[in-house]
Amino acid sequence: MPLHEYQQKRNFKKTSEPKGTKRKSKEHALMFVIQEHHASHLHYDLRLEWEGVLKSWAIPKGPSLDPNTKRLAVEVEDHPLSYGSFEGVIPENQYGAGEVIIWDTGTWIPTTDPAVGFKKGHLQFDLKGKKLKGRWDLIRTHFAGRKNQWLLIKQKDDFVKPETSPPKKKSSKKSEKIPVSSTRTGHSKNSKLKASQFISPELAQLANIPPLGDNWIHEIKFDGYRMQAHINRGKAVLLTRTGLDWSNRFPSLIESLKSLSVDEAVLDGEVVWLDSTGRSDFQLLQNALKSQQTAPLIYYAFDLLSYSTQDTRDLELSERKKRLKMILKKAAKNIRYSEELRGSGQELLKIACQHKLEGIVSKNIESTYVSNRNPNWIKTKCTHQQEFVIGGYTKGSGARSSLGALLLGVYKKNQLHYVGKVGTGFTQKSLLEVLKTLAPLEQRKSPFQKKSPHEHRVHWLKPLWSAEIIFANWTHDGHLRAPVFNGLREDKPTKEITVEEPLSAKELESVTITNPDKILFPKEKITKLEVANYYHKISKEILPYLRNRPLSLLRCPEGVLKSCFFQKHIPTPLPATLREIPIAEKSGVKNYIGLQNPLGLTTLVQMGAFEIHCWNSVAESVENPDQIVIDFDPGPHVPWHQVVEAAFDLKKMLEQLKIKSFVKLSGGKGLHVHIPVRPVYSWEQIKAFSAALAKELEISRPDRYIFKMTKNLRAKKIFIDYFRNTRGATAVAPYSLRARPQSAVAMPLEWSQLKKTTSADEFSLTRALAYLAKRKKDPWSEFQNSHQRIKILDDSLKLGSKSFRRKIDTASTRTR
């Protein structure tokens, strides 16, 4: 009996695996399947249909697409054909206990006689699956007399993907400790997550309409508390969206999470209270928490971030949801899977609004999990609803004498702006509870940037609490129309609360990444999607240095090893996520590229424009630079430590002039020193001053430095490039990727860090993400507010051009 061994090993009363029987051979395409098997050791099972059964091999490390990598494949017992569609959890104490997931499936086509191949121990075949394609060999080894050991080898064809490691280079001890992450989203390949390790959540971008297309799924938007569930060997915790442990608030949910049939997992979801009609109700949820009557609460899980200690964030959403659904099959009634709908998001939104729900969330089914707000998740609401910062409250009258209305605000450029007050939506009980919560925060001074119009009988508060508000719309002067209080929130830092700007339909269309698997950096196999994810992840860091500046872009649509070209004027047609910045030139007004938000970054990646250069001035005052950039460009054979010393020589010179400077690795060969200035000087003045600095450096060390562009004079010297401070010149933006054979990031540093660096391209894409994830302080945190005046320029503002240049040249000699 061909399946006797298979059936002998299993108790089909306890396992859901198919018992199966051998089937007669039929004329049809032969099936293959590879199943990911989380048994005592993770491995992959290859199964090939032959003569009515599935011939099977266990591959410990999984198949490799590199012809130079041979994978051990241990032959095991034949399985029934019905096993080819099996997915599920094999119970503990059963043979092969653990989860089984279909990793790939399709058809296999023998290129030689399989009967002869099985007998001789050499099969040759083509695979046509979703992940595995092309020609393969399966060869029996007879290693140490063990006839069940084979080797699975990929043959050279169009589907080869070599397994190459990034070239090793010398680095400081500090940099060697930085973990190398996967190039997809910054998560380590096969990385293991600690059970209590908080993961910053992925957040949805607001839009006016749901996105269209088959690659989107749509879920009901809950009105509750976002919670991350961490399960570890019979223990469970629930963490808020900022990582606070709220486990003791939800004892019944914790008990149900502990009972899930999984050793270790991290789930993403939301805790809600459902009213009698099945709608989530935030105020009732708050009431339950305050009264500690939390037994009726429900946890809706909608994503899986880790499973069996394996980081799953780099899997596509469709795969993560598939595994999540399996985990929750036998969950308690208060732990539920958040169902999704494929098809018309507009139809689901219409139904949601008819039933007075908050709205829907649409998700790109092919996207990986990225810990920031990005357009792979889109939220569309039935009503206007968001959090607002509470900056004070007014006294009421009559029965409402304790509290009349809350004064609300949002943050703009780190300043709290007043947007109106809310006095409806309270019950007598909630009024007392709100007052009790806010009273200890009272202060004398208004926290708003401008005094609110409600000065009379106001109690000002430290802006540490926020309220969820439902409102009709915004007025023309930026105030809330018909706001209604929907509860206090304590799960979001108030500093993060800004006005939510919805995406338009045109913007939604323009943020799609086409050909996401296109390789842009071949040496590291970094894809277009991975580059887009990088910019999503660092958008908060890079946008302050790009916003409202004319940009020049190095575009490499086919990758860094193919032809690349610079573009400074706008493409036609201009995507909705970019803006025009008109600038007068000799030939007339030209429109330059500008951007405002993370969607613009996504658009640039879609254009293949992932190396970003910017002007030293902003659109509002384009003729008055707000920074100076000095580029230290080493000639051949100049050691790195001399480049570092050059930057410190300039720093010392600037300190003598009482000017603060900031340094960054260029990501290319050298260093950039940035000097923020108040935008009151002309291009001519800034260029003359930067030229004087460069000249002074050359005078101080003529054996090392040169400030003239003549190439034949620059051998073994460092060119002090001050020409980036002329009108129309650009420098690579801080945090920008460089379009080089090896990925590199233009990384801002503390001056104290600079001496520990080993090269200008020390931070690859993956190292940059790992470093930024661990970085505790922004080394350029003072840059945006350092509106420095330069005394020597101030003294010269009233002089004529020639007198000005003489004064600059004279001053440069005095700094020696």
TrEMBL record:
Keyword Manganese in record: yes
Residue stretches spanning the membrane: none
Annotated keywords: ATP-binding, DNA damage, DNA recombination, DNA repair, DNA-binding, DNA-directed DNA polymerase, Exonuclease, Hydrolase, Ligase, Manganese, Metal-binding, Multifunctional enzyme, Nuclease, Nucleotide-binding, Nucleotidyltransferase, Transferase
Catalytic activity: ATP + (deoxyribonucleotide)n-3'-hydroxyl + 5'-phospho-(deoxyribonucleotide)m = (deoxyribonucleotide)n+m + AMP + diphosphate
Residue intervals of the ATP-dependent DNA ligase family profile domain: 290-425
Superkingdom assignment: Bacteria
InterPro entries the record matches: DNA_ligase_ATP-dep_C, DNA_ligase_ATP-dep_cent, LigD_ligase_dom, LigD_PE_domain, LigD_pol_dom, NA-bd_OB-fold, NHEJ_ligase_prk, NHEJ_LigD
First-level EC class: ligase
One matching Pfam family: DNA_ligase_A_M
Ranges where the record places region Disordered: 1-24, 159-192
Co-factor requirement: Mn(2+)
E.C. numbers: 6.5.1.1
GO molecular-function terms, A-Z: DNA ligase (ATP) activity
PANTHER family named in the record: BIFUNCTIONAL NON-HOMOLOGOUS END JOINING PROTEIN LIGD
The protein's name in its UniProt record: DNA ligase (ATP)
The gene coding this protein: ligD
